[in-house]
Protein 1
Amino acid sequence: MPHALLDKHRQTLDSALTAIRERGYWSPYSESPSPKAYGEAAPADGRAAFEAHLGRSFELDQPGQSGWHDGEISPYGVELGVRYPVCDPQALVDAALRAMPQWQAVGAEGRVGVCLEILERLNRRSFEIAHAVMMTSGQGWMMAFQAGGPHAQDRGLEAVAYAWREMSFIPHEATWEKPQGKHPALVMRKNYEIVGRGVGVVIGCATFPTWNTYPGLFAALATGNPVLLKPHSQVVLPAAITVRVIREVLAEHGLDPNLAALCVPADREAAQALFRHPEVRSIDYTGSNTFGHWLIDHCRQAQVYAELAGVNTIVIESTDAYRAMLRNLAFTLSLYSGQMCTTSQALVLPAAGIDTDEGHKTFEQVGQDLAAAIEVFLSKPEVAHAVLGAIQSDDTLARIEQASAGAMGQVILAAKALDNPDFPRARVRTPVLVACDAADAAHYSQEQFGPISFMVRATDSESAIALAEDIVRRHGALTAAIYSTREPVIEAMTQATWRAQVALSINLTGGVFVNQSAAFSDFHGTGGNPAANASYADSAFVANRFRVVQRRRHV
Amino acid sequence: MPHALLDKHRQTLDSALTAIRERGYWSPYSESPSPKAYGEAAPADGRAAFEAHLGRSFELDQPGQSGWHDGEISPYGVELGVRYPVCDPQALVDAALRAMPQWQAVGAEGRVGVCLEILERLNRRSFEIAHAVMMTSGQGWMMAFQAGGPHAQDRGLEAVAYAWREMSFIPHEATWEKPQGKHPALVMRKNYEIVGRGVGVVIGCATFPTWNTYPGLFAALATGNPVLLKPHSQVVLPAAITVRVIREVLAEHGLDPNLAALCVPADREAAQALFRHPEVRSIDYTGSNTFGHWLIDHCRQAQVYAELAGVNTIVIESTDAYRAMLRNLAFTLSLYSGQMCTTSQALVLPAAGIDTDEGHKTFEQVGQDLAAAIEVFLSKPEVAHAVLGAIQSDDTLARIEQASAGAMGQVILAAKALDNPDFPRARVRTPVLVACDAADAAHYSQEQFGPISFMVRATDSESAIALAEDIVRRHGALTAAIYSTREPVIEAMTQATWRAQVALSINLTGGVFVNQSAAFSDFHGTGGNPAANASYADSAFVANRFRVVQRRRHV
């Protein structure tokens, strides 16, 4: 039966394989929440499905349930009141291991077919998931739909495509025939079995509960591993819906649903015991350095794929499109209130200022102009709320206040609290812009998660590039950018990013933003600097999640 | 220029790519040391080249040289007297890093072309290398030629083929064009640069100084990393010749020879500082658990690919070719005096004995018959010396004495010291066979490196398979085998090896032996049990040795 699913989705798979090889634009999932793409009823149905979860127990029929969890807090101030099953991690691990041989037996063809079916089902529920993502993470609606729905599905599909490509290289069997001169050849039949490594744990983050979990989830699942999805304790609903869809598809196709489970441990000790469980062989994690390094240091039985903090950097050396550059930056710094792992934090400029198509601009002038550009961009409330969303965590809120109060350097633009007419209790803040010297590294050189950015004054353009390289090498980054009209400067920055191993965007002045990465084309993270030890997605992200066990006998 | 090398060797590369996908028999390097394959002059030239090294300083013209190293001891008792450059690891690292951008710039095509040329040059020097391997490791001549020469080259080529396959998926550039409805499409040009991770250190072992180093060496090199080859302090010559060939090929093609260096640190502190050096980003290691785990625990800045100790296991349940089975086992246990990481150590039988084509045999009878088969096989001195070689280390010698004296269980066959007429000071020992109960696990369940094997008495065939699985899961193994005439038993063992993740050989009674693995067809190690965290070679062995750094700009 699972093989029929591969046939059903073969064209999607083939297109995805072409896309990861050619890296042009492609997606099978419409990023437009339009009735044309999703059907006339989809918006209302999705909203109704979301609302049906509220104030209820989210039943998943998982083993070892000991109680319910209900700590979700909406950044929009909405009462969610959903209760999620708390299950004994050992019971989930035991059930997952029991399900594993059957998952191995259906082979790469069966597993990939099932994963593609799951992704299609998730896509159909994009509206429901979007509401869940928006209300838990604080994203604006359009981002919640796109990043929480089709873009997350793209990243999941991308991981499946990589997994398929690697697994498809392993033949089921081979005949090995070695000539022996005048004697008869040695002939053996060899069989190659793809086996998963063990239980995969995927730890979700509070800001991108699907986009940052689908790559690891689908990479682990496709390569033969059961998966326990452990969401952030305050951002559970998108994960719960995802797990329910997976379990439904598995059960419908005669497979054990316990291959995927929502894992909400009873307490911190239970969670840590799970992460260190000898049968847990992979952990995918997005979040803070502190906990990420704890996982890497203490969960040595598992391969840990970690996306951690970073300091994304832009060097602004010159531009021939000053206004467009400022607009582009204003959007980047405002989007989801800078609560993206890809948002730029350090904007490094030569102290002498920059040449532009509007004449030379001093360092101070660029700062004022960028502040003004942000204010203009956010001047219409409907735009501001759509773009900013709401602040996900108390920590971020506190950090914004600190920065606005001047604790991190000279304030060029202070954050403002906005009232969202649709969500009166939403906590909305506009970005903070701080100026400082390169030498004052205490604040700009560590991640200040949220809408806090620094205009950093470097001696000259060479030292600006050197500083950017140093920041990335020491503190990590998922994104880097340069604005320059001089090819030698762009070339120098390019070489700096090769050494520091960070993706570079050059002179973005239009509808592409440094904090956005497109599945199938852009690698998210290089895996080569402290911000992440893996990339979404590449061969290294999947190839070590399964092993090949061979057997051989004479024919 | 390097691209011309890719053209020159394209057919070899294409054949290797086909081989790793189809996994039939293939090799471009003749395993027969025949004049037909290597030329009439090759044997004499190779011997002369080897002898020319003796009693001399092995000049490599490397940076930071502070002295000479001369600790080699031949297991054959031959005076070697070669002196090798001792270089400051920091100077080697500095020089390697300086060489890296150029190595990146020639691209995957250039690097792979150079690697293929190096392998061809190494192949031409197979006789010289074979003498070096024989005299340092103690291997017999034929094994030294095959495993030290063409088979090692095969494994190196295999790693290059995997590296090429993964790198060739990364396009140099792509055009990304995203439709925007009625508005003009967003169009970007994207470039993808493959960058190495940093310096690779490859740590050689005393028994297979080329076979076990070439995979890591060529995997690291092909993917853009400079390599420091740190040989075992007593087994240096094969590594030194290898490094010289690599440096020659690099220099001939206008590349910095410091991309590859022989690294003989002045002392243990210098070596440990190297392994922990922040610029060392990969370590390939074959050897003891103690040092391997030290590397894994302390060299967290690097990806460590480790092949460690294991307990290779055979379950003997029944056979329809009793004599042939005994002959096959006798060869396996004798070859290179069991000093292979793939030699079987624990032979597990049901207490009640086994059914054979010569009637039922008790546990004791099988032990006696296997002992007799070993004795018969080694009764001709010329066969014995050719197969056994010499004992590489004092530790192994001591272990053999211990086992022969009954310290590890009931001795069925004691080791004998043989005199090698060609090498009067060679230390030659025949295998030890010990019998014990499954419960007496103290000795058989840890690696007893060398010609020491155990006949282990299990309750029945089910518990024999369960014991084999348990041994592999706890202590690791590179090989496992089963002898049985019953398909359900073979099936049960197959499933046990899937769970324990170890390669299985079934009913080997002819010219294939459990301790041999064929490049391009057999995966050496699964990477999924404690004996090794990686396999030679697969995608996971290469995919994380490079990263992709992209840049994008509007067209």
Protein 2
Amino acid sequence: MSLELLILGSNSAAFAHRRHHTAQLFKLQDQHFLIDCGEGTQLLMKRHKVRLSRIDHIFISHLHGDHYFGLIGLLSTMHLFGRKKELILVGPPGLSEIIQLQLRHSETSLNFQIRFTEFTPNESEVVYDHPKYTVTTLPMDHRVPCSGYLFREKPKKRRINRNKLPEVELSHLDIARLKDGEDILNKDGSVKYENRLLTKDPNPSFSYAFFSDTRLRPQLLETIKGVDLLYHEATFANDMKDRAEQTYHTTAEQAAQFAKDAGVGKLILGHFSARYKELDPIIDEARAVFEHTELAIEGTKFVVDGK
Amino acid sequence: MSLELLILGSNSAAFAHRRHHTAQLFKLQDQHFLIDCGEGTQLLMKRHKVRLSRIDHIFISHLHGDHYFGLIGLLSTMHLFGRKKELILVGPPGLSEIIQLQLRHSETSLNFQIRFTEFTPNESEVVYDHPKYTVTTLPMDHRVPCSGYLFREKPKKRRINRNKLPEVELSHLDIARLKDGEDILNKDGSVKYENRLLTKDPNPSFSYAFFSDTRLRPQLLETIKGVDLLYHEATFANDMKDRAEQTYHTTAEQAAQFAKDAGVGKLILGHFSARYKELDPIIDEARAVFEHTELAIEGTKFVVDGK
């Protein structure tokens, strides 16, 4: 099992330097999640050979256009291509109203159901609970209601040590108990096989935190501690710190310090201001603080597989 | 003076074969009109080096996404780039509500005024009256309220024949009278100079008719008779005539016959179905009926300059 993140778009407000608006394809447990959906996302998916039919979940962070203007077009194309499968959509208040209004005026009744979850601004809540993972909102500090998302696999079961199997006699029930971490007992209650001798530690549980447009959020440090991947906006370099503060954004140095303090595996910076044709100032100042930093360059795939 | 039409996008419902959704830049009398605005139009304008600031008029035909999903992004970028100039927007009922809702949720108050004219569906009306030209709606026959547009220059003034000027004596008032087609009179009312001897015919008045998504509209034949350029949708070739009828579209052959009957200067076909990777079936059957037919290939500029 692994975690994969494909960057589709990474620029802030204006299209510039061949960089598009925010959109990411995140893969976990064979599920594909689209996170944010700027204008032209369906074109970028085509370019990067991502099939629309793979997407069953879309998460939108907020209602600034560079994060969602491509959504209605994407939904329309899904409809046109005959999609029947339910789609899970999570986003801020107002998103559903905007979609419904546009569908109504085009007299379109979608072939598929949208199950819409409206997140509660300024609160952290589980917006999607799957048997194997959860998605939790991360309240951002931005000019409009805005949320990041934390994708976290639930703890996995212990793995049977197959080398030991020839030496022991186990029923199916015993195997299930071992995976749950229990010892195998004799009828009198004494220990027949110790769990630790027949099992190995579970595979790691992966996690990804997506920080959309925001000022620095030190109050979320504990929540995301130790995630494998952290995407954080870094609209500006640190010489524009005041501008970042005024516009409710973060600098690369601030994001790097945050990632370091949170002990994340890797930091990915994105949402670059159009003022940066070259992104050296962003990456250089971030790596000076936290070495394991990368840029959200379009078309780049980040993989965490625990190996 | 000339008329110019730059094709930005020309495909119907789905993006396909590197073809984008409908958008055209039409230039008349040094004014630039954007006609329809599918998703990604601002990217296409960038690709074809069209500056956003040139656009002062936008005409939207109807509220199917492939004709307007790029509008809100375009307006947002104009705002971001500091536009102050008023923008004239003409479109169907509902368009203004959609824009306002999206601006409200992004808490955006545009730096510039949008002067919105809502056209009346199923009626032909002048929606823009400029001293030198008019824009009239052309009611289409489609599944939702939909209108084409007829851009027509008003008759121009007669031109002074400069070769004759040394032979005569004219005041500024005389020149104005000659341009208006009047003779120059003596005080006793007798003709001093005959108009036809001192002037030449006016420059031609150009006209362009844009036929958005529609079934064939024979009732508009008289209205557009003799236009220099006719853009007409041709979603299908004629072997798909029934499908065209069902979906409220036109075939290439039908459009060509219409253009021939209307005696237009040139026919441009667009809004191609994604089923046509190659457009030979479309152009071949149209040219068999009306020779002066071209395809709306993206990036092509059509110029009519009367020479």
Protein 3
Amino acid sequence: MRQFKATLAYDGTDFHGWQIQPDHPTVQGALKQVLETIECGPVDVQGAGRTDAGVHALGQVASFSLVNPIPEENLVKAVNRLLLKTVRVLAINSVSPDFHARYSATGKLYEYRIQRDEICSPFDGRYAYHHPYPLDEAAMIEAAAAFEGRQDFRSLAASGGDEVESTVRTIFSSTLHREREGEAERLIYRVRGDGFLYHMVRNIVGTLLDVGRGRLAAEDIPKMLARRERAAAGGTAPARGLFLVRVEYGPAADTTHTTTTP
Amino acid sequence: MRQFKATLAYDGTDFHGWQIQPDHPTVQGALKQVLETIECGPVDVQGAGRTDAGVHALGQVASFSLVNPIPEENLVKAVNRLLLKTVRVLAINSVSPDFHARYSATGKLYEYRIQRDEICSPFDGRYAYHHPYPLDEAAMIEAAAAFEGRQDFRSLAASGGDEVESTVRTIFSSTLHREREGEAERLIYRVRGDGFLYHMVRNIVGTLLDVGRGRLAAEDIPKMLARRERAAAGGTAPARGLFLVRVEYGPAADTTHTTTTP
């Protein structure tokens, strides 16, 4: 039995999110099915973050264990050959038997893309939220920083989400900047933290859009967080603009583990 | 009655090509339907090039005439509001009444993208042909130039295509180069000419791939063209890598025309 860490990229457009669901295509379900074909038996697949329907990943992480002695370098090819093209395994590494994609994670980086051009290119429409209307971008940039630090983010947790004991999380960095790629003008929001509540990134972006529209002042964000209720914050920005960029692990968990044959 | 020139971008993945077909989604059909909704009457839509199913456009051109007096600047917004998001009208200009998207065109530029990385990103899979196997790229670059000039391209015309009197075309430039964008390594083939036969660009790319695989020598391309039969050239490269980049018009046809109310 060897434990593996897989790094995946996916276009979330056609999936009902990461988490396995009966009768709906999900990324976890697709990966599990492919691994079970290779293993010729049941495989339990854990993901670092349960991305919602329509959310994309550049570096989602999954963990699973296999008995099948297929070499690591062949495993990537075998999995990609069987997977839908909208999901690609970028790397598979042997890891310590106690590695768990979710519980071993020490941080995550998300990116949210807001397309600012009047006309959204048909090649960007699946991968950005198109918002061509006026926004006070300077106020949004200022407001983004207010989410940094160890804070209670209850105001930004979806009410329908998981029951969690604590809604306190540490945000290491929260920044917004304007980016030009070819013809496209975009606002890029990047947030890195030790963990995120359900819908938290999309709710932060919805709140930043409220700041941009002048409905909320950047300096009122601490007050909004202090209210600890969902109604205090802005709406939930659409899923298609959100990317899980990478999942971080402490140096111990991330190094390749020399597997011992069982 | 005013004559218009529209410039369009589209993701061809979900369309059965440009040309209108009963019971299948086509770009021409989608645009015609939207223009007829705005016009409240029949509209005849002409395209500069009939892109195949799965082929994309960054700058396709269509022409049509309208009686409806809606101002040009509102027309772009109105059309984009009604069109599928996978098609965007980038500009609409008033043109001379004798302007015709196809017959007035003096040149076209196409681009073909070959993705060279071992793993093709899920965000590139719809917009490139993934070919991770060894290719003699230097030979392909040399071979690309052999298609330039005024030549008979019968060997590169799909046998099932339109009956055309002449298969002689002038290729102004035909170049291949390697490009790096982020993590992705790509071969980009660009070809600009006064006209193209059915499947011609995809057949040139198929021939270049044969050169890359060592099945055909770059210096044998003139001989291949001289045979004037489809079997002499390489296969047809997949549609998803092909983009119609722009359509060119003589300076007279391209300038904005001052319309006179009928």
